[in-house]
Design a protein that fits this description.
62% helix; 61 residues; 2 helices; mainly alpha; transmembrane helix; single chain; flat
Length: 61
């Protein structure tokens, strides 16, 4: 059997500074989403979810 090019690919570890930046961005984005959902009105959240379902082509109602 021959090995494919994909089997020889090895992951490269990101430096600690890059991992920290990615983690900080993910934390900030998550906090923003939770904070935004916490202060949004129920109608705004419903309308957003409704529009997202239409955009994905999913049935609603």
């Amino acid at each position: 059997m021959t090995r494919t090019a994909l089997s020889a690919v090895h992951p490269i570890a990101a430096p600690a500074q890059a991992r920290f930046a990615i983690a900080a961005f993910a934390l900030a984005l998550g906090a923003f989403l939770v904070w935004g959902a916490g202060f949004a009105s129920a109608n705004a959240l419903h309308d957003t979810a409704h529009d997202a379902r239409h955009a994905m082509g999913l049935p609603c109602h």
